[in-house]
Amino acid sequence: MKNSRDEVRARLSSLSLLGARKGSGQSRLSTNTVNPSHARQMATEELSESPTQERQGIQVIARMASLLRALEHRPDGLSLGELAKAVDLPRSTVQRIVDALDNEGFVLAATSYSGVRLGPALLSLAASTRFHIAEVARKTLEELAKECGETVDLSLVDQDKVVFIDQVAGTHRLTAVSAVGLSFALHSSANGKAVLASMEDSEIDRLKRRIKLLPATPNTITSWEMLEREIEAIRKAGVAYDREENSIGISAVSAAIRSPSGELAAISIPVPTQRFVDSEASLTQSLLKHARKLQQSLGK
């Protein structure tokens, strides 16, 4: 593992983004272009860099990332001048970074008919990425459960219902716990209503033909008129509530999150109603804080 990290660091060093020019022949990430013994030598040299050199290297990577993000959603690209303005860097610096990234295939240099664009090498990197929202959200569930002492659940949309896919149990003697794999109706659960509110109106209209608003308790919403009003309130507040609508004695608060691939999920905190009444405000505040932080890390 250490050798692998050393080689990656050595290859990043070989990009020479601070001064490299296109065609230098020393900025390939492919393993075929780096001699292992040379990579180890470069890694040793890099480890002996001064703090100033290390900060410069980190700065280069940050600038490179900023440049790539500036090109997101710009299929026609940006001119060097536009790109320099977007990332707030001198044009000459942007030119050097573009040259190095172009050499790697991460961007396509400007032509007579298009600006600098994201390159094909990014496609192979994206294709090799395996992503599941539960893997990324696990730490958030644990932190939230520790902070509030309550059970925290993660659920995914499955057509006309939500399914629990992960859970961290609370520390109270009396907690609300549901088995992973259990499903809940969209209209009667906090997590279900949270994901409904995150859907486009057209998607909700399609679901109307499939969802039957059956009562689970006397508190369940059973009309689309009432549910649509609640959806609007959820969109404004950022959280959804279940006030004994799915099960008598259990209330919950939930917030939806969306992965970069469009996967729609919800984090929820189910609590015995007697305790929920006193802790609703603090639970909502904690949930919103952690859900927003997670969503930022997911890049949406």
Structure summarized in a few sentences:
With 300 residues, this protein is of the alpha+beta class.
Q: Mean pLDDT across all residues, rounded?
A: 81
Rg (CA only): 25 Å
Largest sheet: 6 strands, antiparallel
List the secondary-structure elements in sequence, H or E: HHHHHEEHHEEEHHHEEEH
* Low-pLDDT regions: 1-48
Q: What is the CA-CA span between the terminal residues? A: 31 Å
Shape: elongated
In DSSP terms, counting alpha (H) and pi (I) runs of 4 or more, how many helices? 11
Beta-strand percentage? 5-15%
Q: Find the structural class using helix and strand composition.
A: alpha+beta
- What's the total count of β strands? 8
Q: What order do the strands of the largest sheet run in, or round the barrel if closed?
A: 5-4-3-8-7-6
What percent of residues adopt helix (DSSP H or I)? 40-55%
